[in-house]
Amino acid sequence: MQKTEVSFKNSDDKELKGILELPGNQQPENFIIFAHCFTCNKNFHAPSNISKTLASKGYGVLRFDFTGLGESEGDFSDTNFSSNVQDLIAASDYLEKEYKAPTMIIGHSLGGAAALFASQKLDSIKCMVTINAPSNLAHVQKHFESSLEQIEKEGFANIKIGGRSFKIKKQFIDDLRKNEEGTALKEVRKALLILHSPQDDIVSIDHAEELYRSAWHPKSFVSLNGSDHMLSNKEDSKYVGDVISAWAGKYIEKSISPELKTDHEVMANLGPEGFTTQMVAGNHYFIADEPIKVGGSDLGPTPYELLSSGLAACTSMTIQMYARRKKWQVENVETHVNHSKKHADDCEDCENASAKIDSFDREISIQGKLDEKQLKRLLEIADKCPVHKTLSTNAYISTKLKE
């Protein structure tokens, strides 16, 4: 994948900083805008993990800091809900000018409410997604109730949100009140996906129900059971990315770029950032990656896991093909494989630490009505699978530069 730092101006001529996640060197068919939660920024776990997951599925994803947050210019205390909506429109204008107009907008928490309001003014948006978002802006005001008297009297108050201190001015509260009756869904007839955790203790699940009732079809709801409001668990945010990708395929064109193809059997495409690699094998698209501990994002299997997968798949297929030809009743074949590098038993250079060979430990489980003789024969057949034969011989690999 490719990660690019970008910047663009909002309606107040403030420079907003963002990160554009791309699936590879080719331009994707669909771009997404991600609106982070209130007082968060683009580098929080949720926007980062969701964006990377969606980019691995072939989407281009722009996540940026709202005015006065993260690396973006401006003073957060001078912003309000309406300015957040305008920032999203500025992000859409930037994508349309430099790449393609966005077809999807995603918003987390208050960013979800802003995304719904912004989608009313963005004709290119076909899909809207909210994550743990409030159904009305009155909910946001409740978090400031202890400071409302001070805000009304002095015009501002320093409040703590998520353990961090922020300055909120009266104009922010006034803007919430001005918009609190708007559901943003009365006039918007675009596909909507609502993602919400029943355990969310900041924005209760009731808000998801209200959003669903207010929305026009097509609309969908998916429960984020067990996750917290911030999606602080990486697996939760990766799951959100997977769900959004699968759901959006119903409403927008295939996200994989038609340029991502090859005249060979397999192609691997990797940009200048990270190790998340776009793979094409025949008519199939998938991801390879490396573990987080070595700098990867763990969005797909490692190259050696793919190699072991080939051996495991070929073994199960070969055994079943033989059993079917013999009309033996084999209900299921499981092949388990581990890869490692070990010293050969008869190694002539075992004292050399680098003198190791690749070792594949394979265990096979065969279910069916079979006698010992049949099981023994099937175990022999396992060694005859084509991938086994390839790995057991010295294969020749020719390499040249491709024009």
Report on the structure:
The chain has helices spanning 45-56, 81-98, 110-119, 138-142, 148-154, 170-179, 206-214, 234-248, 303-326, 372-382, 386-392, and strands at residues 2-9, 15-22, 31-35, 60-64, 104-108, 127-131, 156-161, 164-169, 191-196, 219-223, 266-269, 277-281, 284-288, 330-342, 357-368. By secondary structure, the chain is α/β, with parallel strands linked by helices. It folds into three domains: 2-136 and 182-248, Alpha/Beta hydrolase fold, catalytic domain (Rossmann fold); 137-179, no CATH class; 305-392, 2-Layer Sandwich (GMP Synthetase, Chain A, domain 3), CATH 3.30.300.20. An eight-stranded mixed beta sheet has the order 1-2-4-3-5-6-9-10, with helices on both faces. Helix 2 (81-98) crosses helix 3 and helix 9 crosses helix 10 (372-382). The longest helix is centred in the last third of the chain and has 24 residues, at 303-326. The mean pLDDT is 84.
CATH architecture of the largest domain: 3-Layer(aba) Sandwich
Number of domains: 3
Shape: elongated
Low-confidence segments: none
The secondary-structure class comes to alpha/beta
- Please tell me how large the radius of gyration is: 27 Å
Could you give a short account of the major beta sheet? Answer: 8 strands, mixed
User: Percentage of helical residues?
Assistant: 25-40%
Major sheet: arrangement of strands: 1-2-4-3-5-6-9-10
What is the CATH domain class of the largest domain? Alpha Beta
- N- to C-terminal distance: 22 Å
Mean pLDDT: 84
CATH superfamily of the largest domain: Alpha/Beta hydrolase fold, catalytic domain
State which percent range the strand residues make up. Answer: 15-25%
Q: Tally the helices.
A: 11
InterPro entries: AB_hydrolase_fold, Hydrolase_4, KH_dom-like_a/b, OsmC/Ohr_fam, OsmC/Ohrsf
Keywords: Hydrolase
Pfam families: Hydrolase_4, OsmC
Domain Serine aminopeptidase S33: 48-139
